[in-house]
Amino acid sequence: MKLVYLDNAATTKPRQAVAEAMLPFLGERYGNPSSIYSIARDAKAALDEARGKVAKAINAHPEEIIFAGSGTEADNMAIKGVAYAHSRRGKHIITSAIEHHAVLDSVKRLERRGFQATFLPVDSYGMVDPKDVEAAITDDTVLISIMHANNEVGTIQPIEAIAHIAKNHGVLFHTDAVQTTGHIPIDVRQLGVDLLSLSGHKFKGPKGVGALWVKKGVKVERYIDGGGQEGNRRAGTENVAGIVGLALALELAAGELEQETARLTKLRDYLIKGVTERIPHVRLNGHPTKRLPGNASFCFEFIEGESLLLSLDKVGICGSSGSACTSGSLEPSHVLLAMGLPHEIAHGSLRLSLGHETTPQDIGYVLEMLPGIVSRLRAMSPFGEEVSSSSACSCTQEEHHLVKSHQS
Questions:
Q1: Pair type for strands 295-300 and 317-318
Q2: Confidence (pTM)
Q3: Which residues pair with 176 in a beta bridge?
Q4: Domains and CATH numbers, the chain
Q5: Per-residue pLDDT tens digits for 322-346
Q6: Is 403's pLDDT higher than 90?
Q7: 325 a catalytic residue
């Protein structure tokens, strides 16, 4: 059976070159980089080289990079680290309602520790309004955390505008760039942020390793105690093999970014056009054009997302009904609900995220199989009779115009 993997927002297949680069550090180059003998110095040299590669890819300084166990840990380090380090100045944090749970749950935990939080709304495209950010700032605000792009619907946020506001008010700004690193250009100086999180397995690196960029001079309380690793900022022996793999994967992704972005954007638009033209009662989630190159997110009315995923799996198509971290939940996506979708429509979500291996033939296969699957599921739905075969998709006229303008 043909396999079409379209869940790259959840994880990506590591490059062969990445796996090969990691292998020596799982074997003969096993030294602890904190020791002083030769095989330890070898590991330390590899760690330093990797730190330099990551820094170069995002226009940072090597000493500003802190390696972590995941993007989730990096988010936790940033939010809790800034909050506790600056708690004497203030205890107010601003974030958005559509953040990854690594951010949302960190902020909520801080609320239980006496902090206050503002969860900003988003518009129907999942976009944060910079004016709302500025209006939420108080004399007590110590941190703003807004994701670079949403993991479910792909909307890219106006980070530079928000960073300008944060700087004018003297507030630190963190962005979760787990979905954007390796996929769109990232220059931390140009973005204007103070902290940025990333994760290796989102750009064809290994799982279990991430990084946090902290601008020089920004005070962050250490997140894990027990040793002096990572410049005394994150205790624990470094995952040298994973860090080497992350750095190489990011270096390779950065080197082909322009070409791959253009290729994926073309395939994404082909998929969106095909789905919205062939299937009635479907909504494109997220901004039509200000979205990640490989993200196509839909809601299909009158069916349930989990049934759709199982049906797609039977014909070899891998997708997601929301963020991978919450796919086991029966609740609809908090992102879609925050965008104003009713529960019954939000339950019918499907995210197809393209990647390095995705081909035009893969998209053609999806467009061949998906309409029939949706039709069969709707025929079994108690609401199936409401579907008219002559109905157009439920995208707004503005969405159609924006998509067609972008495609042309």
A1: unpaired
A2: 0.93
A3: 197
A4: 4-10+257-407 (3.90.1150.10), 16-255 (3.40.640.10)
A5: 655 554 556 789 999 999 999 999 9
A6: no
A7: yes
